[in-house]
Structure formats: structure tokens, C-alpha cells
Amino acid sequence: MPTKSILTCMGAAIFVFALPAWSQEPMQGRSAVQLPDGEGKEIVQTACAACHSLGNITNSGHSAEEWKTAVAMMLNVGANVPEDKVDTVLNYLVKNFPEKTSASAVSIPGNVEVSFKEWKCPRPARGRTIRSPRPTAPSGIRGTWPTC
Question: Is 36 exposed, middle or buried (0-12, 13-18, 19+ CB in 10 A)?
């Protein structure tokens, strides 16, 4: 095979294999999560980010008891927090990420009409399956899938 063809194939292969990795830039263009300043911030940034995104912390809010449970679970699975800094981390999380209140439900006056339609699916004969019109099953496994 000529050298030019080999180089062209290698270039195409590099492009094909590098394209998916290039498209997966960190957090898909979103800015990095910024934690509020306070005693314990550095420990949380290093210990928690070792296993999961800091967005898991900033997007959640828990009561003091729930944070205590969450920190205990993380320590049980190997979070790298010095024993003398556990209370510092706990206090930081309780102070900066308190329990979020959920919006209360709003009742809308008036009547609502609801209907349900129920039907029975035919059962395939013993040991047989019905071919799915879909090319793949819901789990992504190709093959037969019992359907209605």
C-alpha cells in the first residue's frame, strides 16, 4: 500500500477516534461549580469531588440530620476526610446548603374530567415471544420482546 494511502487512513482513524473525546469537554460548556467561602470549603472541594461532582452538593439541600447521615455514608465508602475535620465539613454543609423548602401545591377551582382505558394484552403461546415492531427492546438489547 502506498505511503500516502497509509497516512490518509491513519489521519482519518485519528480523527474518527478523537472526535468523541473532543466533544466531551468538561461539563459540556458549563462553568465549574463554585462553593461558597467558609471554613471547610477546601476539604469539601477535594474530598467530595474525588468521587462525584460538586453540583451534587450545590444542587441539594438537607437538614442537619440528613447532612450528618450523608457525611457518615460517604465516610463509610472511603471519603478522604481527616477525623478531626468531619465536624468542620458537616458544619460547612449545614450552613451553606440548608434544607430546601418545596413549593406548596396550588388548587385550581373547577371540574376536571378524567378517563382511563384499560385493555388486555394477548399472551404469547408458551415458549414463544411476539416480535417487537421496535428494532431494539427498551433496555437496548436487540432481539425479541413481548409486546401488546
Answer: exposed
pLDDT of the chain along its 148 residues, tens only?
A: 577 778 787 777 776 676 666 555 554 445 578 899 999 999 999 998 888 888 889 888 899 999 999 999 999 998 899 999 999 999 999 999 998 887 788 888 888 888 888 877 766 666 666 555 555 555 555 555 455 5
Residue 75, class by beta-carbon neighbours within 10 Å (0-12 exposed, 13-18 middle, 19+ buried)? middle
Tell me what percent of the chain is helix, strand and coil, each rounded to the nearest 5: 45, 0, 55
Q: Which three cell numbers stand for residue 135?
A: 428494532
Residues in Cβ contact with 119 at an 8 Å cutoff, skipping those fewer than 6 apart: 148
pTM above 0.70, yes or no: no
Contact criterion met (CB below 8 Å) for 113 and 83: no
* Distance of alpha carbon 85 from alpha carbon 38, whole angstroms: 13
